[in-house]
Amino acid sequence: MSWEWIVILVIILVVVVFISLTVKIVPQQRVGVVERLGKFNRLLNPGLNILIPVIDQVRVFHDLRIQQANVPPQTVITKDNVQVQIDTIIFYQVVGPEQATYGISDYVYGVRNISTATMRQIIGKLELDETLSGREKISTEIRIALDEATEKWGVRIERVEVIDIKPPLDIQEAMDKQMKAERSKRAIVLEAEAAKQDMILRAEGDKQSKILKAEGDKEARIREAEGLRQAQELEGQGRAKAIQVVAEAENTRIQLLRDAALTEQVLAYQSFEALKEVAKGPANKVFIPSNAVETLGSLGAIGELFKEGKGAK
């Protein structure tokens, strides 16, 4: 290879290096921190950016998306002296690239250490049962402590999750036995409660049945008495109506007799006319009331009546 080709290759290499140091393409959701002569100059936003070679240098690129940092399992002691192992995971986001670069050397490491220290303080104030049932409380208190510390680092804590809380093996076995005993107790209580409810419902049903039967009998007797009373009232009303009709008929008959001018003497005469017909019968004696005789005597007809009667004898 001649010297001319070597010079050309060197020039091409220098040009490529120059372009790579000058042109920077930053992808979306990433940002670069640019230092000029060792001092913060500006941020490289997503897109095409031009730098001055050698003078400008990109110190670091930050990912602006929400990221997660796993905190290694930590063994902590509860208030009642029980060792438990806790796994947590932290979700965070870089909101200040300049502070995240110059505020702390490694904000992920800092977040993990603060999370561990805060977790020890929180668990030390809780008993085992409170620790096992207080995941939400533990997560909230860790997030509050991290927010206070990471605000000046340009990092925002989005969420802290307690993944698992593991008590010692013997404690787990005791908890399993306690849980089984509690479930058996609950099952027995539920069975007893079901039997009690069954007896109550049956007794209630029997009571309601007897009440309904008694009410039915009562209603039947009331209706029967009411029917009898109405029947007696109707019967009495019928008798009263019949008596009234008979009385009215008698009154009408008397009124008709009066209208026909049937005096006492005419009635007596008609009576003796009837006796005359009676005397023609097989009887050999006829008794006449004394007042009737007096009445007929005044009429002068009694003599003939007796004559005819003796002749008939």
Automatic annotation (TrEMBL):
Residue ranges annotated for the Band domain, each copy included: 21-179
Alphabetical keyword list: Membrane, Transmembrane, Transmembrane helix
Record bears the keyword rRNA processing: no
PANTHER family for this protein: STOMATIN-LIKE PROTEIN 2, MITOCHONDRIAL
Family note: Belongs to the band 7/mec-2 family.
Cellular component per GO, a single term: side of membrane
Transmembrane helix listed as a keyword: yes
Pfam family, one: Band_7
Transmembrane intervals: 6-26
Protein name in UniProt: SPFH/Band 7/PHB domain protein
InterPro entries: Band7/mec-2_domain (IPR050710), Band_7 (IPR001107), Band_7/SPFH_dom_sf (IPR036013), Stomatin_HflK_fam (IPR001972)
